[in-house]
Amino acid sequence: MTLKAGLEIHQQLNSGKLFCNCDSNESGKDLQFKRKLHATSSELGDVDIAAKTEQIKLFTYYNKSCNCLVYTDEEPPRGPNEEAVKIALQFAKLVDAKVVEEMHFMRKVVVDGSNTSGFQRTGLIATGGEIKYDGKILELDQLCLEEDSCRHGEENHEYLLDRLGIPLLEITTKPQLNDSKDVQKAAKAIGRLLRACNVKRGLGTIRQDVNVSINNGQRVELKGFQDLTSMPKVVENEIKRQTNLNNVEKANVGETIVVNDCFAKKKDFALALKIEKWNGLMGNKKSLPEHIRMGRELSDYAKRAGMKGIMHSDELPDYGITRSETNNIKNKLNCDKNDAFILIFGSESKVRNAMEIIIKRVKTVGVPKEVRKVTPDNFTRYLRPMPGASRMYPETDISPLKINNIKIFKPKTLDEREDDLPLNDEESKQLVNSNLDKLFNILNKKYDTPKLISRMLLHTLPQLKEEGKNISKYDIEKVLGLFKKGNIVKEGIPNALVQSSNNEDIEINNENIENDVREFINKLVKEKETFIKERGIGAVGALMGPVMSEYRGKMDGGAINKLLIEKIKEIV
């Protein structure tokens, strides 16, 4: 078995929306409107197969995003956003891709409701380039700049416009990944490179798709990975699924037969189909996870045709169908013990249309070329046919944009930024991953206390934030300045930050604090003299508690420890 896999990465860029002047975080008026979307033909008059499968539906849109009319499709697009173009070009420079002379936008037909216009605008930025991962090289195919789609609302026909139009950088690799673990490693490497640029961070801002084929077979696109850790398992399960499909012999199907008279009680229009030698292939709820479950597969195809699903012989009698009725269907279709059958209920036109789609799928030998969604249990389900070239046609509302003469600086990668920090590897990674290294460098250049600043940014400030404290850069610099002068000690920094944020006077060190601490230690050691003689120098740990409880934040803990050891040594 030979695996061929490639990646499609979609990363939101941290700029305004792509074709209007609204900020991507802007909150506009709460508007609601409805649209019906229709599949349009390409320049050659062909309608894309993926668009054909979509039913013409009435969609409801809720707009709390833009204050303009571009993304309600009431006025022509503007732009594209200059900052988004520059960010995309920066990434092209990072991977040594060849930037095209002019960017021409195309319309990609999308009529599932996720775009108010019925299409998505996308433009080619660059071709080629490569990324390195785990000592290997993966070549890139192309980089495109496109607009993100709507988010689903509470119902299937409802969409929210807040995400629509956010710039996306689409990175497509060549199918050069031959190991399931390499898929995850390459995706992680691309993600780290993207974060060297001004991209959005957080859940849902980056989406990864994987194209998978085995033994030079048909390409299957897997969409909707929850996280990178699931990639190897999903790809391995997909390899098994495709292998099983390749082992299924070509199916012979009978005539579709109306079976309304097979039921004791009157039901909707019922159509049945015999599939020779498919008994057991359909599967049911008791089937093992690795079972091919062709019944569920065909049900997903029927759902795309507007049906709720299908019934089949491997799961009947059940769902209100008796054993006697099941046998009536088998007899009418002339099924023997090795045959299976499919049963669909509904309006006659929808049922016949769904059955035609199912028959076409049943007669497909091997792995069909399709798009599948990743499920939470690391398997995949049919989503739609693989789109073709017919879904693309030129965008006429946006002029070509010359981009190969735009001056762009090459940003430092995350690895380079980590290497620049005067800290250990773990702290450097944490600061860069949190995007705090720029602030660290500014503060360290001024105060030259790298360890202290790192601890403040990674631990002290997050802890204070959890407690509801709002610490500004001004507060940080004010407290670091006092520490540098010796006015406060390290343990007193959290309290000083809070005092500064509350516009209170910061409590600074008492000049006589060392004398006070010595006096406290002398008294404590005298009280615990017997204990100290029993424990020896080991008594230091037990006695540090009372001293620190009294003087924490007023004197450096290391200095207190030194004074305590000196006094204990006088006794032991």
How would you concisely characterize the structure shown here?
The protein is an alpha+beta fold and 572 residues long. The chain contains 17 helices and 22 strands.
Which structural traits does this protein have?
elongated, 12-stranded mixed β-sheet, alpha+beta, 35% helix, 572 residues, 4 domains, 4-stranded mixed β-sheet, Gyrase A, domain 2
Structure explained in plain terms:
This protein has 572 residues and is an alpha+beta fold. It folds into four domains: 244 residues, no CATH class; 109 residues, GAD-like domain (Gyrase A, domain 2, 2-Layer Sandwich), CATH 3.30.1360; 88 residues, no CATH class; 59 residues. The protein has 17 helices and 22 strands. The strands form four sheets. Strands 1, 4, 6, 7, 8, 9, 12, 13, 14, 19, 20 and 21 form a twelve-stranded mixed beta sheet that branches. Strand 19 and strand 20 form a beta hairpin. Helix 3 packs across helix 4, helix 12 crosses helix 13 and helix 16 crosses helix 17. It is elongated. It starts with a strand and ends with a helix. The model has no long low-confidence stretch (mean pLDDT 88).
Give the averaged pLDDT, no decimals.
88
Instruction: Determine Rg (CA atoms, Å).
Output: 33 Å
What is the molecular shape?
Answer: elongated
- Unreliable residue stretches: none
Helix content: 25-40%
Q: Give a short account of the largest sheet.
A: 12 strands, mixed
Number of domains: 4
